[in-house]
Specification:
The structure holds 2 protein chains of 2 kinds.
Chain A: H1 6-17, E1 42-44, H2 59-63, E2 69-75, E3 87-95, H3 104-108, E4 114-116, E5 131-132, H4 134-137, H5 158-165, H6 167-173
Antiparallel strand pairs in A: 1-4, 2-3, 3-5
Chain B: H1 2-17, H2 27-59, H3 75-85, H4 96-113, E1 120-125, E2 128-132, H5 140-161, H6 165-196, H7 201-206, H8 213-216, H9 218-231, H10 243-246, H11 256-280, H12 289-294, H13 303-325, H14 331-361, H15 366-411
Antiparallel strand pairs in B: 1-2
Helix pairs in contact in B: 2-11, 2-13, 3-11, 4-5, 4-11, 5-6, 5-11, 6-9, 6-14, 9-11, 9-14, 11-13, 14-15
Biased composition (Low complexity) (chain A): 166-176
GO molecular function, one term (chain A): NADH dehydrogenase (quinone) (non-electrogenic) activity
Catalytic activity (chain A): a quinone + NADH + 5 H(+)(in) = a quinol + NAD(+) + 4 H(+)(out)
């Protein structure tokens, strides 16, 4: 019956919409939290005594579909120890111009050394600064950690070290299911 | 008839007597007025671009630009600076003189038209009694129409001088569109002139003291709104620069300041036609009727300028609202609307208005006038009803035709030349039985449906 009013109804729709809530997030001023398992930039984790978890095995580099990771391993010595065990990652670089943040590197990592954070603001205005080096990627030292190189403090043997190391920092913080990102 | 002629002849004389107030200002008052108009137009353009984007944004459930300045209000200023700092490129092969002159030709007339717009009655400005209007002419209304038409030359010449098919098409469209809508626009003023008896803009405003022309001449007003959007090349009539079809239309080859000039011209044109609609139909600077009933001083001093501004802003909002609500129409629809609807309706309406005016001027008894008005109203209703009936019939006939076509298609998949392999052929072999025809699902009556294969 009132079909002829339809062209005019459109004006009502636009006028009404003017007073509805805007769903846009004002991004730089207002930041919404990401989903908990959001794939942000990477982080190289440490053991509870501050030694690095990375053993320089390059599995992440091999898993990377975008060829964004570059790793050079080095040998630990008794005088200069960076990680428990034989080897450590001497050079570790992630090129965020190539990285697609897919997380395959995290899946490949045998020691949970490489995980992802929720941080997504990694844009920069020069290419060089987008190649993140080991110093930038390493997790910051917590209170009772000590910057490597230093001897293993969580146990005499490697087996003891790994068994103890799993408990204090991570397990005490929150009991997470196996395989969950830290 | 003689009395009508006398009455008609007497009115303009009386109206022109009002023009005594003009042309006597000291030079510095004229300068102030001209400067204020110029600054007002420029600020209006900046604010309008801003408001355009902000309000459109809200209508689409987003914030508009909100980065630069408080609430993003300085965005168009930043855009203007950016535009003027860009490289001023002149493509090879263009007609240089015309190419450079075109944006100026587009922009200047838009400013000129505003000089005859009355913003207020006579006020005391620095001790000088002067009307709030730069100037007025016995033919001020024609000046408005003329400048609107001249402005289009800028667009046409710009499109022609660019030596580019897109620009040329844009310019051609603009000229055709403006010619079509200029007629309807001029006709919508005719009724106003018949009622005001004058072509001076100040006289037209004063003639609306009892009641605004937007009320008594509603059809003229509505048609003027349509034509004013058509004249300014705004959505839904912005075919001259239809991004979907013509890249940038007539301004495809323009950049930097010259592009800015076109941009400026478009928005100043909007300001001007909105001001014209306020002057001719919405009672200019007169206070809105209910207000004057309990506030006698609403039309004194500087107050009218405020009423004018409010009405003006209302019209500007209408521009944005239409842009946000109506999609761009096709070019043939544009022409159809202009020539087949607006102009004939306008002609009939003017005839009716003239008829009633003559009756009133001749001193016909109120009963006769009422009967004539009623007769016209009844005729309008009858015509509308007949039109609706015809449209309904046409729709029904088309639906029946489609139904029949679909039926034929369903019965014979090859109907209408649609290439379909035969259900069985010798080379198909006997081991594979021929597949029976698959029918498309039955279509709803009104929709044309593709019949896919056998």
């Amino acid at each position: 019956m009132l079909d002829w009013l339809n062209p005019v109804k459109g004006f009502g729709v636009t006028f009404h919409t003017m007073f509805t809530k805007v769903p846009t997030t004002n991004y730089p001023e207002v930041k919404r939290a990401t989903a908990p398992r959001f794939h942000g930039r990477h982080q190289l984790n440490r053991w509870a005594d501050g030694l690095e978890k990375c053993i320089g095995c390059e599995l992440c580099a091999w898993a990377c579909p975008a060829d964004a990771i570059y790793v050079e391993g080095g040998d630990n010595t008794e005088e200069e120890r960076y990680s428990p065990g034989e080897r450590y990652g001497r050079v570790y670089q992630i090129n965020y111009l190539r990285c697609i943040l897919c997380g395959l590197c995290v899946e490949a990592c045998p020691t949970r050394a490489l995980t992802m954070t929720n941080e997504y603001e990694i844009a920069a205005d020069e290419r060089e600064s987008l190649i993140w080096t080991k110093e930038q990627l390493l997790a910051p030292l917590l209170e009772d950690m000590e910057a490597p190189p230093h001897p293993m403090r969580l146990g005499e043997t490697e087996e003891e070290y790994y068994r103890n190391g799993a408990t204090p920092a991570e397990a005490a913080a929150a009991p997470r299911p196996e395989g969950e990102a830290q | 008839m003689t009395t009508t002629a006398q009455a008609g002849a007497a009115l303009p004389v009386a109206a022109e007597a009002q023009l005594d107030a003009f042309g006597t200002d000291p030079w510095w008052i004229t300068l102030i007025k001209a400067l204020v108009i110029f600054v007002f137009l420029m600020v209006c353009v900046l604010m309008m671009i801003m408001a355009d984007r902000k309000v459109m944004g809200r209508m689409q459930q987003r914030h508009g630009p909100n980065r630069f300045g408080p609430l993003g209000l300085l965005q168009s200023l930043a855009d203007g600076v950016k535009l003027s700092l860009k490289e001023d490129l002149i493509p090879r092969g263009v007609d240089r003189t015309v190419y450079i002159a075109a944006p100026v030709i587009a922009a200047v007339p838009a400013f000129i038209a505003f000089s005859v717009i009355p913003v207020g009655p006579e006020v005391n400005m620095f001790g000088v009694q002067t009307p709030l209007q730069l100037t007025d002419l016995p033919i001020a209304a024609l000046v408005v129409l003329a400048t609107a038409a001249v402005g289009v030359y800028g667009i046409v010449l710009g499109g022609w001088a660019s030596q580019s098919p897109y620009a040329l098409l844009g310019g051609l469209r603009a000229s055709a569109q403006v010619i079509s809508y200029e007629i309807a626009m001029g006709l919508s003023f005719v009724a106003v002139f018949m009622y005001s008896g004058t072509l001076t803009t100040s006289g037209i405003v004063e003639a609306q003291r009892p009641v605004w022309f937007a009320l008594i001449l509603l059809p003229s007003f509505l048609i003027y709104i349509v034509t004013m959007i058509g004249e300014t090349n705004r959505l839904p009539f912005d075919l001259a620069e239809g991004e979907g079809e013509l890249v940038g239309g007539f301004m495809t080859e323009y950049g930097s300041m010259k592009f800015t000039m076109f941009f400026l011209a478009e928005y100043v044109n909007m300001v001007t036609v909105a001001a014209v609609s306020v002057t001719f139909f919405l009672g200019g600077y007169l206070a809105p009727p209910p207000l004057t009933m309990f506030w006698a001083g609403a039309n004194d001093g500087w107050w009218p300028a405020l009423w004018w501004l409010l009405k003006f802003l209302l019209m500007m909002f209408l521009f944005i609202w239409v842009r946000g609500s109506v999609p761009r129409i096709r070019y043939d629809q544009l022409m159809q609307l202009g020539w087949k609807i607006l102009i004939p309706v306008q002609l009939v309406w003017i005839t009716a208005v003239a008829f009633v005016r003559i009756l009133v001027n001749e001193g016909a008894p109120a009963g006769v006038v009422a009967a004539v008005v009623g007769g016209f109203a009844a005729a309008t209703v009858v015509v509308l009803a007949a039109w609706a009936r015809a449209a309904r019939r046409k729709r029904r006939a088309e639906a029946a035709e489609r139904r029949e076509e679909l039926r034929l298609m369903r019965e014979d998949p090859a109907y209408g030349g649609f290439p379909v392999p035969p259900p069985s052929a010798p080379h198909y072999g006997s081991s594979v039985p021929a597949e029976g025809p698959r029918y498309a699902p039955r279509a709803p009556d009104d929709k044309r449906e593709e019949v896919t294969g056998a």
